[in-house]
Amino acid sequence: MALGKISGVMLKDNLERQGVDIALDGNLAYFDVTNRRVGIQTASPQYTLDVPGNVKLANITITGNAITSNTGRIGLGQVTSLVVEGGTPYDVIVTDGAGNLSFANLNTIASLDGFLGNNIILGSNTTPALTSNAVTLETTTTVTDAIAELNFVLGKLVPPAPPTFPGASTITISSLSSYRMTTVTQIDLTGNSRTVAAGTTVANVRRAASYTTSNVTTVGPGDSGTVSVYKNSTLMGSRAMATGAQNGTYGHLVIGNDQDYAAITGDAGGFWESFNAYATGSNVSPGWNEVYITHSSGTPTNTRWWYYDNSAPGTPTWASANIVNTSNVVSYSSTIPHYTSSAGFTLTANVARLSGDMYPTSDSFITGTAGGAFLAPATITYALAGVTTPLAPNLYVSSGSLAVTTTSNIRTGFGSSSTGPSLTVDNSYATAAQAFTTALAATVLYKTGTSTQIEETSMSINAAVGSGSGNPYRIVNPGSTDTPAYSASAAAFNSTSSTLQTYDATVVGAVLKHDQTNYSTGYLPVGPNLSVGRSGDQYYTFKFVRTAVSKFDIKYTGTMAGLWVALPGSTIDSTSTLNGWLTMGTAYAGSGIPGANTGAGGNGSNGCALGGLAIFNSAQTNKSVTATFGTVSSSSTATNEIYVRVKLTSGQTLTALTIEAATN
Question: By CB atoms within 10 Å of each CB, which of 298, 341, 462, 543 scores lowest?
Answer without folding.
Answer: 462
